Amino acid sequence: MAEEILLEIKDLRVNFYTYRGVVKALNGVNLKIYEGEFFGLVGETGCGKSVTASAVLNLVQNPGKIEEGEILFKQKNLLKMSEKEIREKIRGKEITMIMQYPIAALNPVINNGDQIAEALIANKNMNESEARKRTIELLKEVNIPQPEKIARQFPHQLSGGMAQRVMIAMMLSTEPSLLIADEPTTALDVSIQAQVLSLLKDLISKHRATVLLITHDLSVVAETCSRVGVMYAGDMVEIGTVDQIINNPQHPYTKGLIKAIPSDRSKELVEIRGSVPDLVNPPSGCRFHPRCDYTKPICKKEKPQVLQVEKEHVTACFLYEESRNKKSKEEYAGEYKGGANGRTDSA
Q: 192 near 224, Cβ under 8 Å?
């Protein structure tokens, strides 16, 4: 894993002002993504994953508002840049985004080839002839058969899988440093999902880009990502390598997500009781406490601090804090009695 930080989010808070009240969408999100890694962001619908991505691209618009925080991309705070700077230097060039529903994201009245060529002309300073030639190369790169024919067709003439390939080709055409993939396989058949994810992983490796993959499916993360962040109701509750999160989860919400993954027919799936809270009136303290089987009085009053579990692994849970304190006391008692160094009270 590269040690150079490409994107760092610090204490990001986003609200949406609606007729029902203020939706507290992001509640102080902190996140680091390193150059060259495939980072997964996981959580239920409504937990704040897509809002986080929108904030990175400075696309949170009225009635939404970024209240506070920093978004550092290559050590520059994107939130202090003007809309013109973001549009001309960052969005579509340095950072691109694959949308959840590609056919809806593509322009229905412009053919597929012209849409990719337009991005190349605008961002890579190519002339029309160069852009059209590169467009065909890109369509071949994403394994589209008969690329010349597909380039002449319109989005509505494509299947979901083909449309997503066109979208991937367009987003990679500018050779971005960061690619945000927002649920890129949601609307696709299972067999096509696997093909698209495999293609995306191969292309990212070839183009040396960094990926932020947004998904609600932990099994997708396990197959593609190196690290993962788990979000719940606007809070980042756990971050670690895929191995740490899958094999040594510390937060009750992460454990619940893992237990809900179909893995063995002999095992009964365990659902997380309840549902994501209304963020107009979110729960006090830890936002997960109404659904947690280990809730303590402090969970209802205070938001837990982020604690280090091991290298690259952090969690925000009073349960882990209590476990760590208990372990520290036991280790101290054992050492004091001579368990560690052979000392005794009389030594």
A: no
pLDDT in tens, the chain (347 residues): 447 999 999 999 999 999 999 999 999 999 999 999 999 999 998 899 999 999 999 999 899 999 999 999 999 999 999 999 999 999 989 999 998 888 888 999 999 999 999 999 988 889 999 999 999 999 999 999 999 999 999 999 999 889 999 999 999 999 999 999 998 887 778 778 888 888 888 888 888 889 999 998 888 898 899 999 999 999 999 999 999 999 999 999 999 999 887 766 556 778 898 999 999 999 999 999 999 999 999 999 999 999 999 999 999 999 988 777 766 555 544 555 554 444 434 33
DSSP string, 183-234: STTTTS-HHHHHHHHHHHHHHHHHHT-EEEEEES-HHHHHHH-SEEEEEETT
Between β-strands 76-77 and 64-73, what pairing exists: parallel, antiparallel or unpaired? Answer: antiparallel
Looking at residue 227, its amino acid is: R
Q: Which residues of 71-94 are buried (b: 16+ CB within 10 A; e: fewer)?
A: bbbeeeebeebeeeebeeebbbbb
Report d(CA 114, CA 162) in Å as an integer. 16
The token pair that represents 117 in the structure block = 């060529």
Please give the Cα distance from 133 to 154 (Å, whole number).
18
Q: What are the structural domains, with CATH classification, of the chain?
A: 1-94+206-316 (3.40.50.300)
For the stretch 290-293, contacts whose Cβ atoms lie closer than 8 Å and that sit 24 or more positions apart, written own/partner, are 291/253, 291/256, 292/252, 292/253, 293/252
CA gap 280, 155 in Å, rounded: 38
Q: Give CA separation, 247 vs 123, 255, 311, in Å.
A: 43, 10, 15
Contact 256, 270 (CB under 8 A): yes
Instruction: Estimate the share of the chain in helix, then strand, then coil, as percent rounded to the nearest 5.
Output: 40, 25, 35
**SS3 state of residue 29:** strand
Q: 3-state DSSP call for residue 41?
A: strand
